[in-house]
Amino acid sequence: MFYREAGDFKTSYRQDSQTFPIRFDRWRFYAVLALAFGVIPFVINDYWANSVFVPFLIYAIAAIGLNILTGYAGQVSLGTGGFMAVGAYACYKLMTSFPEVSILIHVLLAGGVTAAVGVLFGLPSLRIKGFYLAVATLAAQFFLVWLFNKVPWFYNFSASGQITAPDRTVLGYFVTGAQTSATAKYLVCLVFLVLVALIARNLTRGTVGRKWMAIRDMDIAAEIIGVNPLTTKLTAFAVSSFFIGIAGALFFAVYLGAAEVGEAFGIQKSFLILFMVIIGGLGSIFGSFAGAAFLVLLPVLLKNLLVGTLGWPTDLAAHIELMIVGGLIVVFLIAEPHGLAQLWRLAKEKLRLWPFPH
Amino acid sequence: MNAMTEGYVTPDGRQIGPVLMEMKNITLRFGGVVAIKDISFDIREGEIRAIIGPNGAGKSSMLNVISGFYVPSEGEVWFRGQKRGPMKPYEVARLGIARTFQNIALFDGMSVLDNIMTGRLTMMKSGLLSQALWFGSAEREENENRAKVEKIIDFLEIQNIRKTPVGRLPYGLKKRVELARALAAEPKILLLDEPMAGMNVEEKEDMCRFILDVNDEFGTTIALIEHDMGVVMDLSDRVVVMDYGKKIGDGTPDEVRNNPDVINAYLGVAHE
């Protein structure tokens, strides 16, 4: 019934390699875009923006970044929080040093700085794999957080050790600082997310993506058919860190407004984003969205249900949330290692014929 | 016939060209173990060259030396009239040497089409930015290479599985996809490591036909290792026989078949 290829003939390779080859899928994608840009900005309020939409959009960017590195190129990373911190501090330094330049450019430049740092910490991946690489990136996480705490230059010698985003506008509307409206926060993050997702999709369906996946699936065979492991792995680190840096910059400047590095970008953040990628689905752009949505929405839902409806104490609800997330990760790793994205693919297969049995 | 510099004509009338690759006194050691001892032979343009020998004779090591995966301890490899220095495996691929593996080395998480497209990576040059925006050279290059890959898909008759993930395919088809990936690189020389291993008679016949067709249609030089004697004798133009890391025979299938050393290695020496 849905998702049928019947009658949808491809007459060129261009049509065949497009992002949404099935017509129904394509229309659904346009509908989601229309909803996201045309309806939500007009009805969004502070609660929905701050607790659901803005964190979802930013975490989705970070999850896409980590998915490129871990899901597509097969390089495990536990340094996501540290790389987000690089994006945040780079953005802060740029915003305070060059106040006249647009914040949008600062966010992109912050991504660029993070890409450079990512490449630096990606160098060990040429020699070590798997668990050992994970530990090396863990070192990056701790080192970067320590660096931003220890060197006052990074937080402009402020007494509290915090960084605070100055007020900045885009097209006359505030996007950072206290006067920012929910709509502005949402739209800025949405624009970046759409750009990041499109770039990620284009990269993963083309030559670069094939190189990444070849290295992931069998690095020796990849090398023998002409993939240079050095440039391929470092490209993955660069692109992944670029996206994560953008997420970090937005997280600090647009979402939090003020941040302390250990609180906002600690090891918990690395794990949270890794969980998003695992639950959502390794090696899938859609999975990054699904994982981010799931782990942002779950605490909100649980809190509303347990505290709001059932009247339980807040700390009990918080503990139960931790237990549920932990349990879910174990269940996913055993039952569906490819995550929500794989469940979605299976559902699509079923929906092609539904409600007819054959 | 080896003395001829301009090649020879096979019994079935194919013209074999000059020497494409020459191994000169190759020795390969792993610590104290000598895998290959002072072996020399050549591979001519357009021929099907087989390397045979009992288990542990050093055939796969020899193929790894040819493909640049192992650097010989002594001796030289000459390719297209030039001495080949020590190279990284991915640089060898750019010279036009492609190979398949004894235990299939495909990328399980990718579709058949993507796997074969990886064979053309060395020819795809568009930059990261162009690919990120899917604009200009990236898209043009993708479609051009896709058209070439589709020709190979047609040639090997795997059209119906092109969007299937490789992990789901049966063994015989995986072997064929691996051949397709190697062919996609349009190699000067194609190395096949036991292309028929573990196949039934029918699959073997298919594979033989594809190997002959590849040689015939694209003029690809092929070097192969194979255990099935019937296959080797039927397919190949010249055969190198190895035993315990040494070369004990080299020549046409008929010459090799009647070589007393080769008979000894395979059947054992007659004791009086």
Automatic annotation (TrEMBL), chain A:
Keyword Cytoplasm: no
Membrane disposition: Multi-pass membrane protein
Location of this chain's protein in the cell: Cell membrane
Location, primary (coarse class): membrane
Superkingdom, taxonomy of origin: Bacteria
GO molecular function terms noted in the UniProt entry: branched-chain amino acid transmembrane transporter activity
Keywords, alphabetical: Cell membrane, Membrane, Transmembrane, Transmembrane helix
Membrane spanning stretches: 27-44, 50-69, 101-123, 130-148, 183-200, 236-259, 271-296, 316-335
GO cellular component: plasma membrane
Protein's recorded name: Branched-chain amino acid ABC transporter permease
UniProtKB/TrEMBL annotation, chain B:
Domain ABC transporter: 21-269
Keyword GTP-binding in record: no
Transmembrane segments: none
Family annotation (Pfam families): ABC_tran, BCA_ABC_TP_C
Keywords: ATP-binding, Nucleotide-binding, Transport
Annotated Gene3D superfamilies: P-loop containing nucleotide triphosphate hydrolases (3.40.50.300)
Any Gene Ontology CC annotation: plasma membrane
Keyword ATP-binding: yes
A molecular-function term among this protein's GO annotations: ATP binding
Protein name: ABC transporter ATP-binding protein
Organism field: Phaeovulum veldkampii DSM 11550
